[in-house]
């Protein structure tokens, strides 16, 4: 699969402009808002294959330019370690209260004549929203494996990990591909 595609927002993402790859300056870009990957476009034919972001999304385009700049500025890359425990996908963590039922697992409503209640469809009656947050310890830091797994098996994977600040935010830069032509970053590491 084209690696850029793995990074685009899901089809049900409200930010429809992120659901496909797009062009920023001379780069093709895929992002879901948490991670971003880009590669330089080769020629004009390729240039025309990608649309720019809608004009009113200038702020996002500026942010993407900034992140591309930060990634291109990375000078030191290291091999990605392969000897870590890959979490099993059953280990998804439930941590968010369902907005629809407020964690009550049921929803109630009334008409003039009747009261009703039903299992909440927002969370299938669980009361919480399943979050795809599977931590994996890599180089002594915890990463959201769901994000890391998008590039973890790519050829020539190299990374640069920014030290986490006190507020637990950090960034993981990566590059991969035959010539290291794909580059990108995971934006908010919050585990
Ligand atoms: Zn619910």
Low-confidence parts lasting 5 or more residues at pLDDT below 50? none
**Cα distance, first to last residue?**
28 Å
* Main sheet record: 7 strands, antiparallel
**Radius of gyration, Cα only, in angstroms?**
20 Å
- Principal-axes geometry comes out as globular
Number of strands: 13
Contiguous helical run count: 4
Biggest sheet, strands in spatial order?
1-2-3-13-12-11-4
Mean pLDDT: 83
The arrangement of helices and strands along the chain is HEEEHHEEEEEEEHEEE
- Small molecules (ligands, ions, cofactors) in the structure: zinc ion
For this entry, what is the oligomeric state of its chains? single chain
Helix content: 10-25%
Q: Kindly name the structural category.
A: alpha+beta
* Domain module count: 2
Portion of residues in beta strands equals: 25-35%
């Amino acid at each position: 699969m084209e690696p850029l595609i793995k990074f685009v927002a899901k089809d049900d993402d409200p930010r429809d402009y992120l659901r496909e790859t797009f062009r920023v300056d001379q780069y093709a870009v895929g992002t879901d808002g948490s991670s971003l990957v880009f590669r330089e476009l080769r020629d004009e034919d390729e240039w025309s294959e990608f649309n720019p972001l809608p004009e009113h999304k200038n702020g996002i385009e500026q942010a993407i330019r900034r992140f591309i700049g930060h990634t291109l500025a990375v000078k030191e890359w290291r091999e990605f370690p392969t000897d870590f425990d890959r979490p099993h996908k059953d280990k998804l963590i439930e941590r968010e209260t369902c907005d629809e039922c407020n964690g009550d697992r049921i929803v109630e409503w009334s008409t003039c004549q009747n009261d009703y209640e039903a299992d909440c469809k927002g969370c299938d009656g669980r009361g919480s929203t399943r979050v795809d947050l599977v931590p994996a310890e890599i180089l002594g830091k915890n990463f959201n494996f769901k994000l890391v797994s998008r590039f973890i098996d790519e050829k020539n994977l190299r990374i640069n990990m920014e030290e986490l600040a006190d507020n637990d935010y950090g960034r993981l830069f990566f590059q991969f591909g035959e010539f290291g032509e794909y580059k990108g970053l995971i934006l908010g590491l919050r585990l």
